[in-house]
């Protein structure tokens, strides 16, 4: 009976030691996970800032481009033609001479 108690106590001590080692390992892994999450969050913020900067640069480049100038001229001509045709229609509706 004493031998059984001694054996059981040894087993319990071995299990406690094994449990402590496993808990220490868990703590290390949790710390690594926290560090990885922090680095990931920082990387995400850096990439978001980079995307915003790229959009701004792309927008500025587009606003300075010939394509943008052409689009503006097209819109201007369309509005001018519409307004001019509307004014002529009003003159005709109010019996103004065309000369």
Topology of helices and strands:
Blueprint: H1 2-63, H2 66-93
Describe this structure in words.
- With 99 residues, the protein is mostly helical.
- It folds into two domains: 1-63; 65-99.
- It contains two helices and no strands.
- The protein has helices spanning 2-63, 66-93.
- It is rod-shaped and about 130 Å long.
- Residues 30-57 form a coiled coil.
- Keywords: Coiled coil.
Q: What composes the largest sheet?
A: none
Number of continuous helical runs: 2
Distance between termini? 129 Å
Give the topology string: H per helix, E per strand. HH
Q: In percent, how much strand structure appears in the residues?
A: under 5%
Low-confidence stretches: none
The radius of gyration computed from the alpha-carbon positions, rounded to a whole number of angstroms, is 39 Å
* Secondary structural class: mainly alpha
Specify the helix fraction band: over 70%
Overall number of strands: 0
- From the spread of the alpha carbons, the general shape counts as rod-shaped
Number of domains: 2
Mean pLDDT level: 87
Coiled coil: 30-57
Keywords: Coiled coil
């Amino acid at each position: 009976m004493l031998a059984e108690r001694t054996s059981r106590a040894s087993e319990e001590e071995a299990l406690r030691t094994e449990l402590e080692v496993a808990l220490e390992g868990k703590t290390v892994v949790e710390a690594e996970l926290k560090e990885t999450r922090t680095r990931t969050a920082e990387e995400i913020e850096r990439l978001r800032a980079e995307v915003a900067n790229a959009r701004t640069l792309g927008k500025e480049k587009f606003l300075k481009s010939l394509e943008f100038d052409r689009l503006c001229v097209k819109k201007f001509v369309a509005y001018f033609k519409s307004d001019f045709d509307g004014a002529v229609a009003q003159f005709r509706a109010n019996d103004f001479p065309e000369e």
